Amino acid sequence: MFPPPPDDGLKRQGRILLVEDDDRLAPLVVRHLADSGFQVDWAADAAAADAHLRAHPVDLAVLDIMLPGEDGLSLCRRIRRDHDIGIIMVTARGQEADRIRGLDLGADDYLPKPYSLWELEARAKAVLRRCVRAGPMAAPPAIQHAGPFRIDAGSRAASLHGQALDLTRTEFDLLARLAGEPGRVFSRDMLLECVRGGETDAFDRAVDTHISNLRRKIGDDPKTPTFIRTVWGVGYRFHLS
Fold it and tell me: Where, per the database record, does this protein carry 4-aspartylphosphate (predicted)?
């Protein structure tokens, strides 16, 4: 694991943990991101990543799926459960199933290998910007009621019929956005703001995947949904009877 780079007067943009077992690629990524103003640490496997997360604050984890021992998907699941940070999954090109699985586990974005260091930098900035806006300090605490839903922006907690919902950051953001304006149709492009801040290339499937996960958690039958309804060819709207 690399120590944090020295304070060279740059305005730090965020603290990133790179989890990558390729010892030729990792130093290049660390140096590029550090030169761009990030504080970067490197862990070569899941155990080292866990140890770092327990000991140091982190804003964003960049996880390679293919790791020695425990894979990046299992690590992603644990990070999303235990830490409120952004996650970018890195997959081998063509592994669509792994990308969708990573999003299902709560990743905020994905990047196929081989990737451009500048694209990784842009995606990291986008995820971190969204995380800052979504964090509890981004807006005064407010409690929103939408039918049987109670959505607390201050604590980032939501419940349905009084039962707490176990939502990822992205699922919470989507629910709050849709429920905040019942009846309004939101296009996928509009909802991408919740998924990764509306930056870099659009990825409609990411929105659909997160909506599917959210529907499952609120008991919405995708064939006849009660709350989140599909507007074919456009996007989604939140329905209250």
Answer: 64
- Answering whether pTM is above 0.70, one says no
H/E run at residue 34: helix 25-35
The tally of domains found in the chain comes to 2
If one counts every other C-beta atom within 10 angstroms of the C-beta of residue 11, the result is: 5
**Cβ(131)–Cβ(125) below 8 Å:** no
* Among 72, 100, 134, residue at a domain's last position: 134
Token pair 């909802």 in the structure block, residue: 191
Given a cut of 80, whether residue 11 has pLDDT beyond it is no
Question: CB neighbours (10 Å) of residue 114?
Answer: 8
Co-location of 128 and 147 in the same domain: no
Q: What is the pLDDT of residues 51-104, one digit of tens each?
A: 999 999 899 999 998 899 888 888 998 888 888 888 998 987 556 676 677 777
Judge if 114 and 22 occupy the same domain: yes
